[in-house]
Structure formats: structure tokens, C-alpha cells
What does this fold into?
Amino acid sequence: MSAINEIASLWMEGTMRTLEAFRTGFGATMDDPPPATRSRVIYESGLVRLRHYEARGAGVKHRVPLLLIYSLFKRPFILDLQPGRSVIEFLVRQGFEVYLIDWIPPRPDDKWRGFDAYVNTDVANAVRAIQIHADIEQVSIIGYCFGALLGLIYSAIHSGNVKNLVALTIPLDTSTRQLPIEILTAAMTSRSARTIVQMYGNAPAWMLYSFFNTLAPTYHLIDKFVGAYRGSSRPGHIDTFRLFEQWLHSDVPLAGRIFLETGEMWRDNSLMKGTMKVGDAIADLKRIVSPLLNVIGDLDEIVNPLSSEPLPGLVSSADRQNLHYPTGHMGAAISSDSLKRLWPQIANWLEARDD
It folds into this structure.
């Protein structure tokens, strides 16, 4: 079988697995691939399974541990895809103690969970578990996409626990209306969102998959396959493509309440305006005083770079900056270029603020 035929076959297999998962209950039987980096679970409660990856670099071990917060929509194994193509592997080899919130998919009786439960309970408990485990007062947070939103909101409400904050491809200013996701999300009325929750309880994984899948025009798929074909002679490239396809089909449900609250935040642009209420507190970004690194993918097709750019101007940190990098939404996590050039910049930034 030629390389291009093998790649097309892999994509078709992934699509068929997804369709079968739709029929049997999306995500219920889809297992993660074997991890690239060793970890152990040090805490589990609510919808949090907290994994610890021990620093194992040859150099100096950094004092402040890192908490990775990934999106709620998909499985986080994209951050530890395979040896040599893993953000987590890179960070532990740089001497960082890394913790990852491995989100447990919501069950039907978790439909009540909103931002308050995810931020003030789940993320807060994870941070507390790290403080105890590492015997440290503050943690550095690295949030990715929707996980960056959760990390940002947590930092606004619990600012004293955050040493440094790194936001990657964060969808913040929802007044932008250029990318397909922005147009489609703006078209989702509160009535439509309530109907979905009334029908399903949680936003179904198949619906989320279908929604995001519409955001990749045909030429993006063609470009992906052509790129895979051109690199297919490299050792392990087909395995990388197979794992990436598995991640593309790893959607999980979104708890009903946070689905509704995300829609409200998007329509009102409330986090950007400083009016978003989470539990009993307002998520006032001006309360954030920790150093902030806001990483923007200039080629991002999911999160508009213009949506991410305003963040440094909304916090009170004296040390704050945007870091632009020529990558797409997922390229920041898995492209070899990003692992060679972007993540060393992030690691150096964190290292300089470790004391």
C-alpha cells in the first residue's frame, strides 16, 4: 500500500470508529493510547484525576511545579503524544515537576456542573493537592484553549496561589467575528442551547465533534494528507499521524451547565468585560498580579489571534507579554517546530521566574 493510501485508510478507520462510537455512546469505549511519559495519579475527586510527572532532566530541578490544564472537549493525550513529540516529556526533561488535570468525562448526573464546580472545586482541589504533594505555596499554571480559560478564571479568583500564568491560544475576546467557529457560535441562541441541554442533559460528544469538524474546510483536510504524505518517509511519521487521528476522534461530553454558561459568556463577552460571575465571585482579571505569558498562534484556525491579544492589557501584572508564534491551534502542541522553538521559549520564561 502506498503512503498516501495508507494515510487515507487511517483517516477512514478513525472516522468509522467515531461513527460506531456515536452509535454505542460516544467516548464510552475509546481508550487513550499508551502514554509517552511515566506518571502516577496522586489525587482523584469530582471530575479531576491529577497526574504527576516527575522531573528527570540532567540539569537543575526547578522549584515551582507546573499545572497543565487542557480543554474539556477532548482527551489531553495530545500533550504526551509519543516519545520525541510530547510537551510533557519536554518539560520534565527541563527539570520541571509537571502535574496534569486528566479530566474525567461528565456522566449524566454531572449536568449541573458549571464554571463554579470546575474552577472553584476541581481546579482549586487540584492546586491544593499539588501544594501538599510538592510542599509549595504557589504553582505555575499552563492552560491550553478552554483550559486556558479555566486557568485564567482560577487565577482571577485565587490569585494568591498562582506564581506564573501561561495561556496558550485562549479564546477571550468573543466580539471577533471572522473565523467559522466565531460565526457559528454567535448563531447559537440561548434558546437553542437550553433545548440541547433539555434533550441530552450534557452537550453530547458527537455534537461537539460535528461542530468542530465543520470548522476544517476541505482544503485543510487535503493539506493535512499532503503534508503527511510528504513526510511519510520519516521514521515514525505514520505512527504520529495515526495517534493524531485518534486524538481528533477523542471528543467527550460537556457538562450541561458549563455548556450553557459558556454560551452566555460568549454572547455577553463577560470575561473580557469583567462582569462574569463564577459562584459568589466576579472573575475580575484585574486581580491577577502574577507574571503572564500569553502565547498566540498566528495561524490559528480555531481561536482567532485577535481574540487572544487583549489579555495582557486586562490584568494587573507588572510582568506581562504576548508571545506570537507562527503556528496553528494544535501545532503549538505537536509540531516538531514548536517543540524545538516555541516550548524552549516558554521553559526559559518560566525558569527566569522560578525564584
The mean pLDDT is 86. The chain has 14 helices and twelve strands. The two ends are 55 Å apart (CA to CA).
